[in-house]
Amino acid sequence: MATTPVRLGETGSGFLQQVALGPLLSRFAVDEVGAGERAAALAKRSIKKESKVAALRLAVAVMDLTTLEGADTVGKVQALCSKARRPDPSDPEVPPVAAICVYPSLVATARQALAGSGVKVASVATAFPSGQASLAVRLADVAEAVEAGADEIDMVINRGAFLAGRHQEVFEEIVVVKEACGQARLKVILETGELGTLDNVRRASVLAMAAGADFIKTSTGKIQPAATLPVALVMLEAIRDFHDRTGRMVGMKPAGGVRTAKQAIQHLVVVNETLGPDWLTPEWFRLGASSLLNDCLMQLAKERSGRYQSGDYFTKD
Question: In this predicted model, what pLDDT tens digit does every residue of 59-81 receive, in sequence order?
Answer without folding.
Answer: 999 999 999 988 999 999 999 99
